[in-house]
Every structure is written in structure tokens, then in C-alpha cells.
Write a structure and sequence with these properties.
The protein has about 180 residues and is α/β, with parallel strands linked by helices. The chain has one domain: 3-Layer(aba) Sandwich (Dihydrofolate Reductase, subunit A). It contains four helices and ten strands, in the order E-E-H-E-H-E-E-H-E-H-E-E-E-E. Strands 5-4-3-6-1-7-10-9 form an eight-stranded mixed sheet. Strands 2-8 form a two-stranded antiparallel ribbon. It is globular, with a radius of gyration of 16 Å. The relative contact order is 0.27. The mean pLDDT is about 95.
């Protein structure tokens, strides 16, 4: 386990080359263009390094639709869905509608593994506005959607990052990796 203040908040997410997380209709089928047997693009390594998962409510609902109502992350991690609504904990998921800065600060102050954030765009924007993301791992999918739901919504301060080597995969996926300076 990491000592207090060593836990990192890691954004691990995919986007189209033109910066979209999903189509306007929340379609994610375009992600399949990089599916290859036996290749998970570092997903399992990431999952072994984290014990907490944070996601926005809209993304949570899209995952539930895609999985027939199952939230697989709750089987492995402590899960927080960031929402404006007050909801009871269900199926291993805590619905959080308080101060996100306080939540992240509290999580980082506890012993444990890293914290995994999976979007969506509004949650990423809030976290960036408070400079809370420590590491960005962004898989760029070789497809142009033209329109849809953006990963980066703007209105955040300049954040200086240190680039780690990018990984190029035979499928055309390029994985960018940055650390907060």
C-alpha cells in the first residue's frame, strides 16, 4: 500500500483522434476498431495498481446499459459515481454528491493503491479545474467521429505535464502518458 499523499489520481481513458469520448448518442461501438485478441492496452496493469474507481453519473449509466445492468468495476474496486443527485449506495457503488475536492483529498490521504478515473468529460473538467489529476493515460483511437461528446471541455487552468514515452500498437491505437509536474 502507498503511504499517505503518495496515492495518485490517474485518468485512464480513450478518445477518438478528434477528441471525442462518445458519439452524441453515447455510442461507443467505434472503440471496437482497435479490439485485438489478447491485447488490453495496459488495462489489467492499471487495475492491479488501483483500488478505487471514480466515474461520472452519465458514464456510469452508459456502462450499465452496455453491460446489462452490471457494473464490473464494483467487483474489483471501491467505486464512486459523482452525481448531483442524492442516492443510496447500491451494488457496491457509492453515489457522491458532495465536494469533489474534499473527496479526492480524503481518498489521497488514506492508505491504499492509486485512484482510477474514467470520465466523462464533465468530471474530467472539474478535476482539471482543481488540478487534481496526477497522471493522464489517454488512448487515442484511429478514428475521426466528427462530432460527439468531448473529453476536454475547456475552462481549466494551464496544467504543466511531463510526457512519458507514447506507446504505438499494431491496431493503430496510440497511448499517450503524462505526469503532472
Amino acid at each position: 500500500m502507498k503511504n499517505i499523499n503518495e496515492r495518485k489520481l490517474i485518468l485512464y481513458i480513450s478518445m477518438s483522434l478528434d477528441g471525442f469520448l462518445a458519439t452524441k448518442e453515447d455510442d461507443l461501438s467505434w472503440l471496437s476498431v482497435v479490439e485485438q485478441a489478447g491485447e488490453d492496452y495496459g488495462y489489467e496493469i492499471l487495475n492491479e495498481s488501483v483500488d478505487t474507481y471514480i466515474v461520472g453519473r452519465k458514464t456510469y449509466e452508459v456502462v450499465l446499459k452496455l453491460t446489462g445492468g452490471v457494473f464490473p468495476q464494483a467487483e474489483r474496486h471501491k467505486c464512486y459515481v459523482i452525481t448531483r443527485e442524492q442516492r443510496r449506495t447500491e451494488n457496491g457503488v457509492t453515489f457522491f454528491n458532495g465536494d469533489i475536492v474534499e473527496l479526492i483529498t480524503q481518498l489521497k490521504s488514506q492508505e491504499g493503491k492509486n485512484i482510477y478515473c474514467d470520465g466523462g468529460g464533465q468530471l474530467v473538467q472539474w478535476l482539471m479545474q482543481q488540478n487534481l489529476i496526477d497522471e493522464y493515460i489517454i488512448s487515442v483511437i484511429p478514428v475521426l467521429l466528427g462530432e460527439g461528446k468531448r473529453l476536454f471541455l475547456g475552462e481549466s487552468p494551464m496544467i504543466k505535464l511531463k510526457a512519458l514515452p507514447a506507446r504505438n500498437y499494431p491496431s493503430g491505437l496510440v497511448q499517450l502518458h503524462y505526469l503532472k509536474v
